[in-house]
Design a protein that fits this description.
- The chain is of the alpha/beta class and 389 residues long.
- The protein has two domains: 222 residues, Type I PLP-dependent aspartate aminotransferase-like (Major domain) (Aspartate Aminotransferase, domain 2); 143 residues, Aspartate Aminotransferase, domain 1 (Alpha-Beta Complex).
- The strands form three sheets. A seven-stranded mixed sheet has the order 1-9-8-5-4-2-3, with helices on both faces. A three-stranded antiparallel sheet has the order 7-6-11, with no helix packed on it. Strands 10-12-13 form a three-stranded antiparallel sheet, covered by helices on one side.
- Strand 4, helix 5 and strand 5 form a beta-alpha-beta unit.
- The longest helix has 19 residues.
- The structure holds pyridoxal-5'-phosphate.
- The site of pyridoxal-5'-phosphate (PLP) has 14 residues, from helix 3 and helix 4.
């Protein structure tokens, strides 16, 4: 692609920080892990931060540390990254999908209670695209029904709800540092919590179940190798030094897209600001509206790709995935998910995106939307039977 969908922002300082670790003899479980954990704890205000090998590993360990297992149910959005449901399935619990709100594309607090049964143990809330879910309402529902709350803040580092960082509201929160995230460690994740029991359980489980007091060959739990190497941590520390500037740059790019795309017919833009929330821009996702559907979205995406412009279909609903046809709880009414997901289109979005590139993306998108809206592009009826997003 001439214009990538996403790209990591790696500085010379980042490169030097990683190289410096390689000149030491500590490549895992060393001082950089501790320093990175402290940096995330300080930034989020969390009492405990535990580095793990990915966001998915972090979600899995939260499920495990909260004692969620076979036969238990966890309420999750279907409009989310597949890892959200996978983490629940790893422990033989069932993801129960609940619908989202059209404005924020996050779990709709009004749709959660209908999904609660006697087997429900937790709500796994995702802060989609860096926009915090309604944490106050969701925590209140959890309190009334004695449920745990896990926050998937993998797309939302730095976001806030009512002035408090996303990830720090629930029993535990998870960040991820894959190269397309706001900050990266290559691969990596972090669990934050106020609960010392959860923190020490996650610490043990990431390292083959070794409790902190155990010696190297004493295992109190059946754990995993979910460790985060020192090179990754050094990159994370270096990236965290620039996080404010990086998030500001992303907000600036979102503003430029907004100005360029505002007023185009059949296009719905993400809100630049929302009440009670500070956004942290992960991706810039527009939605087709009016009479335009998945058919037009897929055609526009193909055409953009042909022109060398990266774009993506964030997200493909989990309940439509072949792996989840039977591996989930009772199917709720997911009409907002069903309507919105096939109309979503993620545009190129990364810190070093240039103004001329933004112009080019917007000009091409505008032209393709106009073509898609014309009568010549009417959807063939056979296509509406397509099963996958
Ligand atoms: C990125 C992401 C994760 C975790 O991804 P990893 O690749 O395992 O680090 C989890 N949930 C959401 C919503 C994500 O976007």
């Amino acid at each position: 692609m001439r214009i990538a969908l996403s790209a990591p922002d790696i500085s010379q300082e980042d490169i030097d920080a990683v190289a410096a670790v390689l000149r030491t003899s500590r490549l895992s479980l060393g001082p950089k892990l501790e320093e990175f954990e402290h940096a995330i704890a300080r930034y989020t205000g969390a009492a405990h931060a535990v580095g793990v090998s990915s966001g998915t590993a972090g979600l899995h360990l939260c499920i495990r540390a909260l004692g969620i297992g076979e036969g238990d149910e966890v309420i999750v959005p279907s409009f989310a990254f597949i890892a959200v449901a996978n983490a629940v399935r790893y422990e033989k619990a069932l993801p129960v999908f609940a619908d989202i709100e059209p404005e924020t594309l996050n779990l709709d607090p009004n749709r959660i209670e209908a999904a609660i049964t006697s087997r429900t143990k937790a709500i796994l809330v995702v802060h989609t695209f860096g926009c915090p879910a309604d944490l106050a309402a969701i925590l209140e529902i959890a309190r009334q029904h004695h449920l745990c709350v896990i926050e998937d803040a993998c797309e939302a580092i730095g976001a806030e709800f009512d002035g408090r960082k996303a990830g720090g509201w629930g029993d535990a929160g998870v960040f991820a540092f894959y190269p397309n995230k706001q900050i990266t460690t290559g691969e990596g994740g972090m669990v934050i919590t106020e609960n010392p029991r959860i923190a020490s359980m996650v610490r043990a489980l990431r390292n083959q179940g070794r409790a902190e007091t155990n010696d190297w060959l004493q295992h109190s739990e059946v754990g995993y190798n979910y460790r985060l190497a020192e090179m990754n941590c050094a990159l994370g520390i270096s990236q965290m030094k620039r996080i404010d500037a990086m998030l500001a740059r992303r907000a600036e790019i979102a503003g430029k897209y907004h100005d360029k795309l505002r007023g185009i017919e059949n296009l719905r833009l993400p809100a630049l600001e929302l009440p009670r929330r500070k956004l942290s821009w992960f991706v810039y996702v527009v939605r087709l509206s009016g009479t335009l559907t998945q058919f037009h979205r897929d055609w526009i995406m193909d055409e953009m790709h042909r022109r060398g412009i990266g774009c993506g279909r964030y997200f493909a609903p989990i309940h439509r995935q072949p792996a989840y046809h039977t591996a989930c709880g009772p199917r709720a009414d997911l009409r907002v998910t069903e309507f919105e997901a096939p109309r979503c289109l993620a545009l190129p979005f990364f810190n070093r995106l240039q103004d001329e590139q933004i112009d080019e993306v917007c000009e091409n998108l505008g032209e393709l939307l106009q073509l898609a809206g014309s009568r010549a592009m009417e959807e063939p009826s056979a296509n509406s039977a397509a099963g996958f997003y």
